[in-house]
Amino acid sequence: MAAEDKEVVDGVKSYLCEQIASVIHRGTEKLPRISRLYVEAHMLNNQVRFLKQELRLQAKPPSYVGVRQRGKFVVNIDRNIDVTLLKPLMRVALHPETYALHVILPRKVDLLVNVMKVENLVQKYIGQGAMMVKVLFLMARLHAPSIIFMDEINSIGSAHTESGKLFNQLDGFEATNRVKVLTATNRVDMLDPALLRPGRIDRKVKFPNPNEQVLESIDLKKVAKKINGASSAELKLVCTEARMFSLRERRIHVTQEDFEMAVAKVMKTETKNMSLRKLWN
């Protein structure tokens, strides 16, 4: 009887050791991917932190910064300086992936936001588009603080279009009006170099496209098997949800796990402990 108990104990011990070794092996395989996700999140955090800093300038009034004597270098401050007259940078350019910013930005900013698609400014009648630009900037000044977000700026800011009125409005901007101008484009090569010079576009933020390694890591055939029979609207929603999972984790690229999470959410499949399966399966 003792020999049989010893065999049972040895069998259970051997089974548990195999299971522990399997879990350790799977965890070791996931570590490089987790490290890559951390790197991608850090890369996107820089852009997000920069945009938050620019937008907070609209809501917070200027203030003095305390300076203490340290070392042998002493900074003399003129107390007659009026910090309210200091002019912050007023124009920011975003490129190239701007769809998510175009959708999310107006919903996440508490200020008065003026959103206008710049393709509406391209009119067949000469002078009508220029007049709309003038009215847009006038309304932004009247309702300051405000943000003007121009998507697809290349349609009116390229070297082959009449962009003089836009240049005049940007040149005539006053920082005290508390008006922020955000522009976005997927075609930086089409923009007029005069538009990109300092004084018109002060800051430029680039959101990179997925690289070849990220694209190869997504198995669309595996995703397709899980959504067999889905409608075209459901397929579009799966892609949208996958992109949103990536944005929530502040990552630049969409991964295979994002698509699997999106399929589970859209197709109403089993979602219990999905976050654990996403990490270890």
Counting helices, strands and paired strands, the structural category is alpha/beta
The geometry reads as: elongated
Strand order of the largest sheet: 2-3-4-1-5
Helical proportion?
A: 40-55%
Largest sheet: 5 strands, parallel
Terminal-residue CA separation:
41 Å
Give a description of the structure.
The protein is 52% helix and 9% strand. It is of the alpha/beta class. It has 3 domains: 1-60; 83-207, Rossmann fold; 212-280, Orthogonal Bundle (Helicase, Ruva Protein, domain 3). It has a 5-stranded parallel β-sheet with strand order 2-3-4-1-5, with helices on both faces. The protein is elongated. The model is unreliable at 64-78, 88-114 and 271-281 (pLDDT under 50).
List the helices and strands and how they pair.
Elements: H1 2-59, E1 91-96, H2 99-108, E2 112-115, H3 128-142, E3 146-150, H4 154-157, H5 164-171, E4 179-184, H6 193-196, E5 203-207, H7 212-216, H8 220-226, H9 232-248, H10 256-266, H11 274-280
Parallel strand pairs: 1-4, 1-5, 2-3, 3-4
Helix pairs in contact: 3-5, 9-10, 10-11
Organism: Pyrus ussuriensis x Pyrus communis
Domain ATPase AAA-type core: 116-208
Pfam families: AAA (PF00004), AAA_lid_3 (PF17862)
